[in-house]
Amino acid sequence: MTQLPVFEFLRRYQVNDTKPGRREMLLVNGREIPVAVVRSRRARRYVLRLRADGLARLTIPRSGSARGAWEFAQRQEAWLERQLQHFAARPVRPKEWQAGTEILFRGERVRIELTGNAVQLRDEIIPLTDAAGDLRPLIERHLRKLAAKELPARTFEFAALHQLSVRRVTVRAQRSRWGSCSFKNVISLNWRLIQTPPFVRDYIILHELMHLRQMNHSARFWKEVEGVCPEYKTAKLWLKENPGLLDH
């Protein structure tokens, strides 16, 4: 498969086509990179992101065009090559979790331990019926339950503190974002925030809450964020230095 020229991309990707799952291909140093094309009402510019699994996400802002998006993506070949090299150099995280595997929990590397008929993560005890096989599904179900309990409570706590009205908080398993805020005052958070340090979790929650004041990422928005979360740059740096959580 060869890289699509702009005119062919435009023919196959109509401006009003927002069907999920659409894939095109970018050619980077002889390697085909699948690209998921999406539109976003909130995006202010074209955005191209590459996941650790090799899938790129190309976002078209409301004011953008399919032609502009594909031309933008084709100009990112050098950046994509650097990202591919970065991912290749990163240590591979184990897909299966066994006793002794270290995982992130509340921002710390925690070793999975077996104690009797249970899995232990620091002070968390998870009942175990079968010690054989991959422990990951069991542990992730437990972490998601923790997140579903803790994240909404923390969000409503901050909302009350800053006199903001939140209609609902959902906890989901997004693959490309840590959170979102809708025009209907619904906050959606990624359950994997339970694996980040508390100050990172709080930054993401406050970030989404500040969208209730500024539904954009303008300079005004970031001033709102800084006003309620002065250490937000440190949290952003932690996320940058600890990539890959969303790629699992």
Q: Give the ordered list of helices and strands.
A: HEEEEHHEEEEEHEEEHHH
Mind telling me the C-alpha Rg? Answer: 20 Å
Q: What percentage of amino acids are in beta strands? A: 15-25%
Termini separation: 27 Å
Query: What structural class do the secondary elements suggest?
Result: alpha+beta
Biggest sheet strand line-up: 1-2-4-3
Low-confidence stretches: 13-21
Count of helix runs: 7
Oligomer: single chain
Largest sheet: 4 strands, mixed
Basic shape: globular
- The helical percent reads 25-40%
Mean pLDDT: 85
Number of strands: 12
Protein topology:
Elements lengths: L5 H7 L10 E6 L2 E10 L6 E4 L5 E6 L4 H9 L2 H13 L12 E4 L2 E4 L1 E2 L3 E4 L2 E4 L8 H26 L6 E5 L6 E3 L4 E5 L7 H13 L8 H10 L3 H10 L7
In short:
This protein has 248 residues and is α+β, with helices and mostly antiparallel strands. It has helices at residues 6-12, 66-74, 77-89, 136-161, 198-210, 219-228, 232-241; strands at 23-28, 31-40, 47-50, 56-61, 102-105, 108-111, 113-114, 118-121, 124-127, 168-172, 179-181, 186-190. Strands 1-2-4-3 form a 4-stranded mixed β-sheet. Strands 7-8-9 form a 3-stranded antiparallel β-sheet, with helices on one face. A 3-stranded mixed β-sheet has the order 10-12-11, with helices on one face.
Characterization of the model:
- The chain has 248 residues and is an alpha+beta fold.
- The protein has helices spanning 6-12, 66-74, 77-89, 136-161, 198-210, 219-228, 232-241; strands at 23-28, 31-40, 47-50, 56-61, 102-105, 108-111, 113-114, 118-121, 124-127, 168-172, 179-181, 186-190.
- The chain has a 4-stranded mixed β-sheet with strand order 1-2-4-3. A 3-stranded antiparallel β-sheet has the order 7-8-9, covered by helices on one side. A 3-stranded mixed β-sheet has the order 10-12-11, covered by helices on one side.
- A hairpin with a 5-residue loop joins strand 3 (47-50) and strand 4 (56-61).
